[in-house]
Amino acid sequence: MADSIRSVVRRIAALFTSRSTPAELGDSLRELQSRLGYRFRDPYVLVAALVHRSYQGVAEGEGPSDSNERMEFLGDSVLSLVVNEHLYHRYRDKSEGDLTKMKSVIVSKQILSHLAKKIELGSHVLLSDNAQRAGVSEMDSVLADTLEAVFGAVFIDGGFEAARSSVLRVLPGDLGEIVYKEESINYKSLLQEYIQALHKVPPRYRVQSTAGPDHDKEFAVEVVVKGTTLGFGSGKTKKHAEQEAAREAYRRLTNDPATKPAVD
Asked: 85 near 165, Cβ under 8 Å?
């Protein structure tokens, strides 16, 4: 490991042990390593992956290199490669478009946060006292980002094969099952990630009409990006109508390039 990384993890270890005993630190790391199916040669690399930017000494210390954000950046790429490789070999009859859709669902924040909760990752995230009291460790975005950072840590400590094994251990056995269970897909989240990556602005939802009595209303909603309508949806609540609009927009954008609306 590079000296700069060793320096970072030593400072983080000092911060951690200032709040916990060595035994508590060891127990926490052993528990998480068991769930990952990987034993770290240098456990403090795993500690570094668990440090949220709010943690005491990070915000006022050496800067973002002391939080897990750089490992998250690395882990995102590791995760994508593992998932892409798995889908490529597992679903030989799927087109490039189908594989892209499957991958985008699997690595979405919603799915990653769900997987992070299954391995109880939130109990290991290192946060400031204020952030801990605010429940930040259970926020979907924090859990998803930390899981990516953990995968990055496995890669740093053990290489790609170790990371691959750990990712596939955490992910469900049949990744395709995630994609084709509609109830597991948050299309609003998927669409937002897709649009922001392309245009750096979030999609907007507008109620077009409401119909029916107060106890049985029907909402019609459109989703718009830079003045272009991407999809429509309806439902008994605005939330459901927005989800339907996002689903139509996301499917149009990712599944059928010929019908993609032009967004300037």
From this structure: no
The CA dihedral of 36, 39, 41, 45, to the nearest 10 degrees, is 30
Q: Is the pLDDT of residue 93 over 70?
A: yes
Closest to 239 in 3D by CA, of 262, 190, 205: 205
DSSP assignment of 114-152: HHHHHTTGGGG-B--HHHHHTTGGG-HHHHHHHHHHHHH
**126 DSSP β-pair partners:** 51
Residue 172 carries which DSSP code? -
pLDDT tens string 45-68: 998 899 888 875 544 444 444 689
Counting every residue written for the chain, the total comes to 264
Most distant CA atoms of the chain, gap in Å: 67
pLDDT tens by residue, 143-165: 999 999 999 999 999 999 999 99
Catalytic residue among 66, 76, 157, 242: 76
Please enumerate in sequence order all residues whose Cβ is within 8 A of that of 222, keeping only pairs 6 or more positions apart, or say none: 205, 206, 208, 229, 231, 232, 233, 245
Q: What is the DSSP letter of 214?
A: G
Q: Is 76 one of the annotated active-site residues of the chain?
A: yes
Tokens of 29: 């790391």
Is residue 63 a contact partner of residue 142, using CB atoms and an 8 Å limit?
Answer: no
Whether 145 is catalytic: no
Residue 64: DSSP 8-state: G
Catalytic residue chosen out of the listed positions 145, 148, 157, 222: 148
State which amino acid sits at residue 156.
I
